[in-house]
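# nightly structure sweep
# worker-07 picked up a monomer target from the shared queue
# config: single-sequence mode, recycle default, output format = structure tokens
# input follows
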Amino acid sequence: PALFMENARKGSIVSRANSIGSTSASSVPNTDDEDSDYHQEPYKESYKDRRRRAHTQAEQKRRDAIKKGYDDLQAIVPTCEQQDFSIGPQKLSKAIVLQKTIDYIQFLHKEKKKQEEEVSTLRKDVMALKIMKVNYEQIVKAHQDNPNEGKDQVSDEVKFNVFQGIMDSLFQSFNASISVTSFQELSACVFSWIEEHCKPQTLRDIVIGVLHQLKSQLY
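# output follows
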């Protein structure tokens, strides 16, 4: 009986120990599988979200840059401004903004060409005035150096004949060089003629030729 009681007590202790171990083991969570599923799935979703967010931000920046470019064009190009203020401001389409910008650039090119032509004409005017200034300075200097030379020796008729001979010679070249199709063409031809036929050396040769001709007629 004593041996039976001892074995029974040991069996009860072992049974309770197994029951406690089983209960403890069942209460412990399966950390391997559950932790793996718990951490892996949110990481995939977070990576996709980051890529989607980066793509969205890049696309938004691109659209903002394009919008700013069209807004700048509409602010710079005068023809893109809204003229009818009674109906309030209206936003132009991108196609209209581009077309108006092209038209304005073409207009600026024409204006630039026109200004270059005007500058060229003004330069010719300045050159002609400089030539005339040099000629008058030489005449004045020659008169100042010899104020009494030939005084009372040449009649007004001879002076007129000299002037007429010079003008006749100049008119021949003038008539052959000048075109009167339009005022603009006339102006351009006049300045070209002055530069070519009114040089000091050319005028000197004309005057000498006229004087020799009158001298042969008088004597």
